[in-house]
Give the backbone structure.
Amino acid sequence: MTEELDILVIGAGQAGLAAGYFLHQRGVSFAVLDEHDRIGDSWRKRYDSLVLFSSRAYSALPGLRLTGDPAGYPGKDEIADYLEHYARIMRLPVRMNESVTSLEGRGDAFLARTSSGKEIAATSVIVATGPYQKPIIPAFADKLSRDVAQLNGATYHHPEQLRSGRVLIVGDGPTGRQLSIELAATHEVWLSAGKFRLVVPQRFLGRDIIAWFETTGALRDDKESLHGRFVKLFDPIPGWNLRLSVLRRAGAKIVRRAVNADGRAVTFADGKSQIFDAVIWVIGYRDDSSWLHIPEAVTSRGNYAENRGISLVAGLFHIGRNWQNNRASALLAGIGNDAAGIAAQAVEFVRSPKSERSL
């Protein structure tokens, strides 16, 4: 039999749980589905040394603070356990080990099929799969020899995964820089850098940089405002320990953007090449829309077709997107504001006249 719900939330990370918090207050029937074994596993499975760049004071969801020193910085497992605790305290209807394998539009409702073989009909759907779905791997990676170990932001966990030798890290965002410092202690590290990155101190005048972002508006100013566009353009990286000068002192060699590969060699934008024993791709992520069988909901490049979390398909919403509304949209510090807005719109759609919501 097909289960019927007002709203289906796909993903039980911080975005899905925040949406669930507000839906619970609205008195609608809903469920939150997630593919992992435990709530928080999307955090637990990231690299072991990951520590947030936002303090505990700015790393909590609506209605429940994160215990511990507010000025301290939580690790990934602490956040994972917090999310699990949050779902339990808020009594959210979360179903683990159940992913949505397909979503279609059927008349005035969405029809979801799950990995357990169930069918769920929902009037509205909130996609909360987050910004970290499918690691971006360039096509030329296939030209690398099988002798070169290849990892990415989802598969790298600790230095012991790599044998001794020369490691190339492709992508100089926060993750690439953090891994460069970590691996430089045990390996010969090369970091492939692209565009200019603005690096700011983690703390300034005794305050967390996120607190300064909050004070100056850099955290929550709308992305279309003059200040918001400026912040988005530079998208500063917190932590002076991640400056390229510091990475060089730690032993990392900074090189140009990687553009090609052949065997064990990688070629850079300046035409120079080097032999490597391992490559870690941390360029970024893209949407995995293979399960979303509604043509209007997906762009020609396979990304979700949405603006500020509102899909081109009526009744379909997204949450937890990078820069959905502002710098804080994909962060624990800001997901609550976006969740409140998206939840309200989903409920409004559910309660609208049936004749007005044909898919």
About this structure: The mean pLDDT is 94. Residues 307 and 344 are 16 Å apart (CA to CA). The chain has eight helices and 23 strands.
